[in-house]
What we know:
By secondary structure, the chain is an alpha/beta fold. The chain has helices at residues 20-34, 53-60, 80-87, 137-149, 174-186, 234-239, and strands spanning 4-9, 38-41, 66-68, 94-98, 101-105, 110-113, 116-119, 131-134, 154-158, 191-196, 203-207, 210-214, 220-222, 246-248, 255-259, 265-268, 300-302.
Amino acid sequence: MGSIKFALFTDLHHDVIPDGLERLSRFMTRARKAEVDFIIELGDFCHPCDKNKELLSMFNDFEKPHYHVIGNHDSDLYTKKDVMNWLGMEHSYYSFECGNIKFIVLDSAFIQYGNEFEAYYRRNYEVEDGIYPSIPDYELTWLQREISESLLPIVIFSHHSLENNFRKRGVSNREAVQSIINHGTVNGKKILLCINGHDHADSIDKIDKTYYFTLNSISYKWFGPEFEHFCYSSEIHAKCPYLKDIVLYSEPLSAIISIDEQYNIDIQGMEGGYEKITPKELGITGPWDGRTISPNVSSDRLVFE
């Protein structure tokens, strides 16, 4: 079996921005030109409602397999089951194979209360007494089994990072996930890459033998109301009230990833910019949420050892 290629994006947040359809359309064009084997979005796609059917139809019209990861904001106004039904997902965490690679999709949108786990829904993650984001114990057991039984090299997708240790950005029980991954590599499993969204940032790290890649948002960087600014028409700001708290990217950022027969990974990223105003013009410099601020997706070659 030869190399495989897939295209991916994350954090469109269609309901927050004025040009979500255009950004998705340009991603779809890029994926088609690259002749990828499948596409996947890593969460925070849109609210699962009638007004967003055009967006979902555009994604579903892709001629090759297409997959979803559930993000924390997908269920801001709905239950997780509503999101799954709308997206056509049978399970919120699952695996699939493409070529000679096994892909594992995790669901990290849970809050832990003691030994119990509650799914994100209707902004219940805004409470202070739960631990979030978390991956439930039963899902970790499933992950361990998926890895131990796999005869193929593995790539893992999640919305939240499995390595970012800044406040509540990364998965709270990420050390348990990393332990499962590292245990698998010790036992001869090839766990090539973990890919996440959520951080609206561009980052590549390596822990043990596995690479961890944070994919930047296709849309923007959020800074919050303390940095509010009004760069668009009053009509657009009225339609998109959170636009004053974010800085839109000029390009719809995404990545094309190829994995060759030796399991080396080529990430074809994108150089971008800011649409109306830059973080520096707002007085923002340095890291944000534990990541470097950047309107890009880095291109890189990751060699499997």
